[in-house]
Write a structure and sequence with these properties.
about 250 residues, elongated, mainly alpha
């Protein structure tokens, strides 16, 4: 039993070292890749624009649920007019980046992993290497940067739509005064709250994109291997997102 535990521990350390080394390779190849902005813009479209529908729908319904639950909770303490403050802080600091990252990992992350895994399985990456074309710089880095850039934008859209959904329920249905809803929100939400949300969304974007391209690039070149890489992308991204969320929240506190 101890031998198996030790082997599991050492394997985990080897995987972590491999991921960190892969991240350094991506960062080192990022400056040349930035000169080909058309490739990055295409990946921003694939990772960001194609995820807009699920992000906006999820943000709307999450905001509406926050409006219902938040109003019932605040009304018990006679603070129903503070609904805008509670919803805005909850979305900007916590729910916006976290839920967006989980949705991003499930939609864009799996697409990146399966695409790179299929390229590995069909020997497209090996063909690039034979033609002296660096697949990291030509294929992987644009997808990584596209995900990193798209993630904060999606988180911002999620928060804005969520606040609108909460306003729709709180003001139009529950009868909260619209002036109090918006004025208390503006006075209570500080620059630190917005900064925390931006930092979280950037960290989640780096983590999700890195895990997706790593799993896809090193996937076993079989149909089963691509499927396992896609599954590992979602599971690992979810765990890492929640872990980073705790660390960043503790750091800001």
């Amino acid at each position: 039993m101890f031998a198996e535990l030790w082997k599991t521990f050492t394997d985990a350390l080897e995987d972590l070292g491999s991921v960190v080394h892969f991240l350094f390779r991506l960062v080192g190849n990022s400056p040349p890749a930035l000169l080909r902005f058309n490739l990055i813009s295409q990946q921003i479209f694939n990772s960001g624009a194609l995820s807009l529908v699920i992000i906006m729908l999820s943000g709307l319904f999450v905001g509406m649920v926050l409006g219902l639950q938040g109003f019932q909770l605040l009304q018990r303490f006679g603070s129903g007019e503070s609904l805008g403050t509670a919803v805005a802080i909850g979305l900007v600091k916590e729910l916006g980046p976290v839920v967006t990252a989980l949705l991003f990992a499930g939609r864009a992350g799996t697409a990146l992993a399966s695409e790179l895994g299929l390229m590995r399985a069909t020997d497209q990456i090996s063909a690039m290497e034979m033609m002296a074309v660096d697949p990291i710089q030509r294929v992987v880095v644009p997808r990584f940067l596209g995900g990193v850039i798209a993630m904060p934008l999606l988180a911002a859209i999620f928060s804005v739509i969520g606040i609108y959904g909460a306003q729709l329920v709180g003001v139009q249905i529950m009868g909260v005064d619209a002036g109090s809803f918006w004025s208390q929100m503006r006075s209570a939400v500080s620059l630190t709250d917005v900064t925390e949300g931006i930092v979280k969304s950037l960290a989640f974007g780096v983590a999700c994109s890195l895990i997706a391209v790593y799993q896809g690039y090193y996937a076993t070149p079989t149909a089963e291997g691509v499927g396992r890489a896609t599954t590992r992308t979602v599971v690992t991204s979810a765990v890492v997102i929640l872990f980073l969320d705790y660390l960043i929240t503790a750091a800001f506190l």
